[in-house]
Each structure stands twice: as C-alpha cells, then as structure tokens.
Protein 1
Amino acid sequence: MPKRQQGRDEDVLVASLRSGDEQAFMDLVDRYGPSMLRLARTFVSSRAVAEEVVQETWLGVLRGLDRFEGRSSLKTWIFRILANVARTRGERESRSLPFSSLDPAGSDEWAVDPSRFDAGGAWSSPPASWEDVPEDRLLSRETLAAIDQAIAALPQTQRTVISLRDVNGWTSDEVCNVLDISETNQRVLLHRARAKVRRALEQTLVGG
C-alpha cells in the first residue's frame, strides 16, 4: 500500500478510536494482540504477567490517543508503549539494569566460541552443515521446539530482538524505534542471538 494511502487510512483509524469506536478498537486488538503478547513474553517470567502487560498497554493506548501526534506509525507507538510497560515489569521482577544498558555492542561476549578457531584465525571446527538433513526433519516439531527452547534461553535483550526480527518479521528500523536502541546494537544483538540458536540447532540436527 502506498505510504500516502496508508497514512490516510491510519488517520481515519485514529479518528475512529478517538471517537470511541469500539469495533475499531477491537479490530486493533485482534491485529496486534498476539504479537504484543509474544513481545511482552520476552521481558517477563510468565504468560500471566505478559497478559497483564498487554492489558496495561491497551489502557495506556486509550489514555494516550489524544496525545498521539503521528510522528511514528500507530503500530510503532503502540509497541513502544508495550516495550516500556514490559521493560518496567521485567526489571521489577529481576531487579536488572535498564534494557539499553544490557548486552551493549561493545560487550566482549563471543557470538562463536573462540575454541572453534585455530591460532591463525581459521575454522578448526566450522559450523556444521545440515544440507543433507531431510526437509521433514528440519520442519519437525522437535526442530521447532529446539528453536523455541534456544530462543527462550537467550539473554533478554537478544531474545527480544531475535523474536521481533525473525519471529514477528519486523524491520531493523522498527526494532530500533520500539526498543530505543541503536542500529549497531540491534545488529550485534541479532547476530549473537542467531549464532546461539544456530549452535543449538547444530546439536539437535547433527550432534555438533
């Protein structure tokens, strides 16, 4: 859809929401609710708390509609509210540092175990290939469960970024805007997350 048309449609939607159109609001809940729950779940310890975060977010959306200025898309604005609410709940649960200060791009964490390189920097234990793994096994419940488990085991920042990029299909710009992180940090977090998930899949598929 052309951006101009999309913008007009969004203006109509916002006007409907501000006028108290319940159907417009329910359509919005149906459209974004599942993705919001998935994102909230990356911040907090249980589905029940994630559901509370989503409910609190919708209350925030309704209260803040009159202040929505359209400088970002409605979707980005809603998910930014969600991220702020979820981050606060998650930090309260874990007493952790703020999201933006965790796992910075300058961290010395290795995306790939250094022991897999020789002294000259070449692979001594290269990533295992699964080209010969049957497609039905790649798409099996076991493999999908291994992916879910690997993502769930990631540090919160990496888990959130890979969930938005690779599960929800967001662009890097959307992720940066919603999570308020730099493009460099987003890229590093995604790379580390993908490397860890791949390593877990190696063990599942080829016993690497």
Protein 2
Amino acid sequence: MKHIVVLTGAGMSAESGIKTFRDADGLWEGHDVMEVATPEGFKRNPELVLNFYNERRQQLKDVEPNQAHRDLATLENHFNVSIITQNVDDLHERAGSSNVVHLHGELRKIRSSGDQNNIRTWTEDIHLGDTCEKGYQLRPHIVWFGEAVPMIDKAIEICQQADILVIIGTSMQVYPAAGLLDFAPSETPIYYIDPKPAMAKNSKVHIISQSATEGVKTLLHLLEKNT
C-alpha cells in the first residue's frame, strides 16, 4: 500500500471558517501575534493570552470539518496516509483521519508552563491560577514563535517514507515546516493544492490551483487515474 504524506496549512481549514494571522499581515483575529503567540507575550500579559486561546478553543465547537477534510480521510481506504498539519484545530481527526501529527500544537490540549512534557486534553477555558500538580500555571499546548517544534523529528521521519507528497493550503515559507520538502525521496511526486500556489510547476510538482475542497476532489481523480 502506497504511503501518502499530506502537509496542510491554514488554507485547509479556511473553508470551515477558521482564520489564522497569516490572512492579515501579522494579525490573528485582530491581535498582534507577538502579543498572543510568543513566550514574551505570555509573560507580559498571561490573562490576555489565555483568554485569546480560550476563544479559539470555544470556536472549535462552532465549526465542522469541510469536504476536503472528509475526502482526505477516505484516502485511508486505499493508501497508508499520514497527515502533518501546521493547524492547531482538530478538524482532521473529527473528519476521520487516524494518523495526524500537529507541528504547532493543539488547541484542545494544555500543558504545564514548567514541564513541556506534562500535556493533557482540555476542552474548556484555562484561567489564570489554574496550575499543574507542581504549581506551574497551565498554558495552551501551542508552539509559539521562538519555541522549539517538538514534533519536527517525527515529521521528518514520515516525509522520508513518502511515496506521494501532497501540500494543501500552505505557502511552505515558514520554517521548520518548509524544510520538510527536502526530506522526501527525490523521486516522490508532489501535488500542491492552493488557489495562489507559491511553488513553480515542474516535472515533479503538479500544481492544482484550487481551494482545498475543490483541489482535494481533483487530487482524488488524479490518484485514481495514476495508481
């Protein structure tokens, strides 16, 4: 069974109504990302940061996976599928995908600010004063700017085993995620789905200039013809 590795970004969830700061020049839902997505911002104003992610977490209750999420899940009927996402929502899992790696963390998880390995599932708000067993403030399980990306090594290992690489809704300009392309085998074909693709078409890269929902439909047809 061929191994398809799918790299997804903000464009994957946009049609479900989830916005990210990359849509608006450094603003994420009206907030400067340096205030809500850095360790320094959390140190300056932890209540603001906690409330910001509380709102994002609550937003997940009002959105659903879109057709692209669901179509990717159906690929598991015919392929070994690994999804590596830069998104912090859980829409891939809710659509039925069973092998998802979150590079930038997950909104529905929290961790201790004093122990990055103390992680747990959390669906409600985090308040200032909520602490782990050792007394450290709980924080969102989100990889902020300036922090290490714990799952990058696992993502590299997955990309090294790709028979087919699919990129959806991401410019692949942000590192370390952008570097994952370099780890796919040289003969691995790449399908790039984005209405404004940032990569050039060549013999290896197949450009699908469509939204995630339309582009994944096109991908399914291409895979059906070519495999």
Protein 3
Amino acid sequence: MSEPSKFPSRLAWWRGRRGLSQLQLAMTAACSQRHISFLELGRTKPSREMVLRLSAAMGLPLRQSNELLLAAGYAPVWTESDLGEAALAPIRAALDYILAQQEPFPAVVVDRRWNLLRANKGAVAMVEFLVGPVAPGTAINLADALVAPDTLRPYLANWSDVVRYFIRSVEADAAADATPETAALLERLLGYRDVRATVSQAPPAAAEGPILPMHFQKGRVRLSLFTAIATLGTPQDVTLQELRIESFFPMDEETRQTFRKWAGSDG
C-alpha cells in the first residue's frame, strides 16, 4: 500500500478515536463535512496545510501529526532531536535550572513513557535512601519503579491509591498517542502483581485532602510528598513535546527537614 493511500483510513481512525463526527471535525478544522467525507473516501487528496489543520483539530501530538503527513505522502514537518544536540542547549540549560531551583526537594525530567532523563540531588538522595545506590548509567523507568512490587512499593504506604491514580494517567496517555510503545507500557504495568485488582477497585468515597500525597516510610523516617508535572510551552520538536518535569514538594515540616538534612542545609 502506498503512503498516500493510507491517509483516508488513518484520518477516519483518528477521528473515531477522538470521538468526533465528520461534521464536528469539519467545524473545528474550518472546512465542509463533504470535504472530510471525500478525504476519508480517498476521493480528494489533502494538501499539506489541510493535514496539519486536521491534526491540530484532532489534537494530535507532533509525532502523530508527522505520521499523518507521511500517510498523505508528505515529509514530516516536526523535527525529533536528541536532547544532547547542540541546538537544544538552551533547553537543557533551562531544565537544569528548574531542577536546581527545586533543591533540596526532588525533581526529575522524564520522557512520555517515564524513562528518567535527568534528576537533581534531592531525587537521587530520596531514591538512594529508599532502595540504595543506583549504578551510573543504569536505565530507570519511573513507572516501573512505582508500580512493580519490589522497588518503591514496600515503602509507599498508600501504594494502592497512588497506583490507581497513576495507571489512569497512563491509560489517558495511551488513548492520546495511540502508539504501540505506550500501549505496551500500560500492559506491562497492569501485569505486575495486584495492579489489575487495585485499578478495578472504586476510589475512596471521601478524599483525605485536596491532593493525593505519596506517603513513604522506611524505618523511622516518614516522607509525605505531592507532585507537580510541567511540560514545555509551545514545543515544535517531538522530543521536547514529550518531556515532562516532575517536581516533588513536602506536605509537612518533618519531610521538609529530612530533605534539608540530607542536603546539609538549614535553609
């Protein structure tokens, strides 16, 4: 099958996945329903600009927008750079600045599938306290570390609540990008012991507070943390769009003082 012949089926597939009728998509993309129908039937070849307009109307990530362009017979528009490339030096500097500003509390940079790319000293200190030193260069997936039975789970007192929420977020990612890689991550996480049963349980009827914290405990040390996840604004590169910065904040003074002690700081 030639690339352009794939476009009609891919457009119809994405439209269905987004739950849009032809009319709804046409209204959002500022074209006619008849034009959408002709595109899905293969009776009309889209222009490059129309493919980009449809991608935006369906909220496709940059990677999937590139794939739709290829299916229509056009070259990808959005670059996919290695984070170490010279052109991304200002981005790396910004990420390092954000991580440093979060000290002594943990902060990490991950890709869309939770592979660890960068971590500050606070994050390293917490991981080494909970599970021991990690050899330099070791590939770490934070999703696996959180969900698997033998890494963070033994120290996460409210593991069930946290994992139930986290799996829902991975399900949302899988629905949004529709890639085999994210689907595989979801299946791997669901395959860990007790995870499917935990996800199927109803959440507590009454929330304990305005945000779900993570309650770690090892020996006499207790850590209560909540997280904030940020992304880069207006990315025009696939790699940058898929970056996430997760910052951990203390919920109480005990946690705050523990991290300051580990950092050798009283401030």
